[in-house]
Amino acid sequence: MEGLVLLKALVTRLLFVLHSLVAVWRVTWVKNERRYWLLALLNLLLVLETVLTLKFKRGRGYKWLSPAIFLYLINIMPSLWLLEMHHENQHCSNLSEKLAQNFSRRGDVNQPMVSHKYTNEMDKIALLRLKDLSMVCEPVWTLGLHQTLLLILILGRWLLPIGGTITRDQLSELLLMFVGTAADILEFTTETLKENNVRNNTILVSGILVVWTWSMLQFPLDLAVQLKLVCPSSVKARGFLRLFLCQYSADLWTIGLSFFIQDGPFLVVRLVLMIYFKVINHMLVFFAVKNSLVMALHFYRLVALIMATRASMQGCPESLQTGHSGPDQPSESGPSDWEDTSREALPLQASPVTSEEEITTWYPITSWELWWLCFP
After folding, report:
1. How confident is the model at residue 224 (pLDDT cuts 50, 70, 90)?
2. What whole-number distance in Å separates Cα of residue 210 and Cα of residue 205?
3. DSSP three-state, residue 358
4. Which residues pair with residue 221 across a beta bridge?
């Protein structure tokens, strides 16, 4: 078992290093300068972290933070920045146009009789052009690096050995959160940077990349699932704020991620693009509305948590605070504590069934159960 843990730790970090090296190679190819290979030296930090983790933690992770994922982001972020800031972007459609022009110059490919020699010559030209595909289709390469980055982050967090106090259930919850987060981040980069008005503005591209980099910092953190604490009874006597932070620390961290790291900054960028830069399309409007809706739902969740904490401070269950207005009035939201006790103490056969009103008052049941009782 210990050997499997070490193997998973090494394989995951090797995957991080290989992907960052591919990004560095792509930068040197696009820039046509070998000095950009110096970016590969950033992987030495990940190598050092691997040695320390294997020596002191036996390959297992840390509590609340994943240094391997954080260093992986440090390794690959500069390469993606350089690729996005590169001004000589070309569309892949240009490749097909150039191939068609070259083929038309050498003859009509639609002629019914084509010699075998001429066909081989055309195949050689096509192979030479496809060999330069990586230089022509830069947007596709950059988008592929963005997509594989997010996939490797999720896969790497899954493969990394569990450490600290995180459980498998918490890890599965964290991975599901990462899937939704990664999809939103990929939509943000593709929908904002694909516009020509945005691409031609270097300052605007830099601002979008800053927000994108800031949103990626949530991947190394595990606070959203590890802060679910069981609050002692003594915390209630210390005040509302302490009880609120103790009970709902994980929920507050999730709300904070949405407001300050992901949905909030994304909404600001999209509103600036639409209002100030006049970049308006139906996808940009849709995702702006989506970010607004997510933030509104998180705010609604925050209000609900505050109300639940206030109800807990008063010493009553939350379910009794909404509909129970007096000792003689039945609750609208559910049965009272006395009704629950009587339900457990007395079996259903012991209570006489006289009317529908008495049934619903004494023992709240569903309509199907009521039908079965009245018409056996």
Report:
1. low
2. 9
3. helix
4. 65
Specify the 3-state DSSP secondary structure of 58: coil
CA-to-CA distance for 109 and 122, rounded, in angstroms? 9
The alpha carbon of residue 213 and the mean position of all alpha carbons in its chain are separated, in whole angstroms, by 13
**Nearest one of 369, 286, 280, 12 to 161, comparing CA atoms:** 12
Burial of 347 (0-12, 13-18, 19+ CB in 10 A): exposed
List CB contacts of 84: < 8 A, sequence separation 6 or more.
Answer: 142, 193, 205, 209
Residue 314 buriedness (CB in 10 A; 0-12 / 13-18 / 19+): exposed
Residue length, the chain?
Answer: 376
Each residue of 89-143: pLDDT tens digit? 545 544 444 544 554 454 444 444 444 444 555 555 555 554 554 454 678 889 9
For the chain, the straight-line distance linking the first and the last C-alpha, in angstroms and rounded, comes to 58
Cα–Cα distance, 28 to 33 (Å, whole number): 5
pLDDT above 50: residue 329: no
248's CB contacts (< 8 A; 6+ apart) are 305, 309
Closest residue by Cα to residue 365 from 341, 335, 344: 335
Categorize the per-residue pLDDT at 307 as very low, low, confident or very high, splitting at 50, 70 and 90: very high
DSSP 168-216: HHHHHHHHHHHHHHHHHHHHHHHHHHTSHHHHT-HHHHHHHHHHHHHHH
The Cα 101–Cα 117 span in angstroms is 20
Q: Give residue-wise pLDDT tens across range 153-185.
A: 999 999 988 766 677 888 888 898 899 899 999
Of 214, 220, 196, give the one whose Cα is nearest residue 89: 196
Question: pTM of the prediction?
Answer: 0.71
Q: Assign residue 58 a region: left if phi > 0, alpha if psi is -120 to 50, beta otherwise?
A: left
Side-chain-side CA neighbours of 250 within 13 Å: the count stands at 15
Say if CB 132 and CB 90 are below 8 A apart: no
CA 325, distance to chain mean position in Å, is: 43
